Amino acid sequence: LAGTIAIVDTGGHLRYLERPDHQSPNSVDIATLKARTAAFRERPSSALEKRVKENPGWLMFPNALPMSGGVPLFYEGECVGGIAVSGIAENDEVVAEAGAAALKP
């Protein structure tokens, strides 16, 4: 099963999107928000998910989705964006990490 993949730049702007035919159209928004979360916070979106469990006030973090599946993209030590996967449940973040690793020089 393939998931929806979204890549955003540091401003959270969508740079790449791939949604398999069998994935819900809603997975586009979910993947994009996960990628933005990772880019804006410079850490995996699952880190925000953990923060929300400790303090629900983090649900108000703008343009973010506290759900695993997004990881930041770094180039020469600087965050340049985020990549996220939606639609394959517990494997979303593992696949996003593999994608981020593939983009490293």
- Principal-axis shape equals globular
Overall radius of gyration: 13 Å
The total count of strands amounts to 4
How far is the N terminus from the C terminus? 28 Å
Structural class: alpha+beta
Question: Helical region count?
Answer: 3
Strand order of the largest sheet: 2-1-4-3
Largest sheet: 4 strands, antiparallel
What is the succession of H and E elements?
EEHHEEH
Mean pLDDT: 93
Q: Which range best describes the helical content: under 10%, 10-25%, 25-40%, 40-55%, 55-70% or over 70%?
A: 25-40%
Q: What low-confidence regions span 5 or more consecutive residues with pLDDT below 50?
A: none
Percentage beta strand:
15-25%
List the defining traits of the structure above:
four-stranded antiparallel sheet, 4 strands, 105 residues, 36% helix, 3 helices
Your description of this structure?
The protein has a four-stranded antiparallel sheet. It has helices at 26-41, 45-54, 92-103, and strands spanning 4-9, 14-18, 70-75, 78-86. With 105 residues, it is an alpha+beta fold. β3 and β4 form a beta hairpin.
